[in-house]
Amino acid sequence: MTDPIADYLTRLRNAIKANHKVVDVPASNIKKEITKVLYDQGFIRSYKFEDSKVQGNIKIALKYNAATKQSAIIKLERASKPGLRKYSKAESTPRVLNGLGIAIMSTSKGVMTGKEAKANNVGGEVLCYVY
After folding, report:
1. Is 126 within 8 Å of 80 (Cβ atoms)?
2. How many other CB atoms sit within 10 Å of the CB of residue 111?
3. Separation between Cα atoms, residue 125 and residue 123, nearest integer Å
4. Sign of torsion, CA 96 72 127 34?
5. Three-state SS for 4?
6. Cα–Cα distance between 104 and 8 in angstroms, integer?
7. What is the pLDDT of residues 93-126, one digit of tens each?
8. What is the pTM assigned to this prediction?
9. Residue 53's pLDDT is what?
10. Rounded distance between C-alpha atoms, residue 111 and residue 109, angstroms
11. Strand 44-50 and strand 22-26: pairing?
């Protein structure tokens, strides 16, 4: 697999389109951090890290609106790819839908949203956009 983050986002996208309640994703440290950011920002209901001897899994409970049955995540978009990395300085962190969405960034202080990176005055690689 050349791009595990794109695989993670695709699994989430496919589960949302199929209206699944829970999705299993192979675990890695960066995926765990992205999952924590999604939970903190209210895009997923809950998550659980299942560690096994080899790799482990992440069980993610997706969040849906009870009335309209629409997911909290409307779109997941990969920004930085293995062939073309996208970096952003602290002053120019991307805004997603005029602040309604989030940009998830990998910085020297860990994985965080673009707003948190700007507040901490750190730049980094823009991993994905979520709204």
Report:
1. yes
2. 22
3. 7
4. positive
5. helix
6. 14
7. 999 999 899 999 999 999 999 999 999 999 999 9
8. 0.94
9. 78
10. 7
11. unpaired
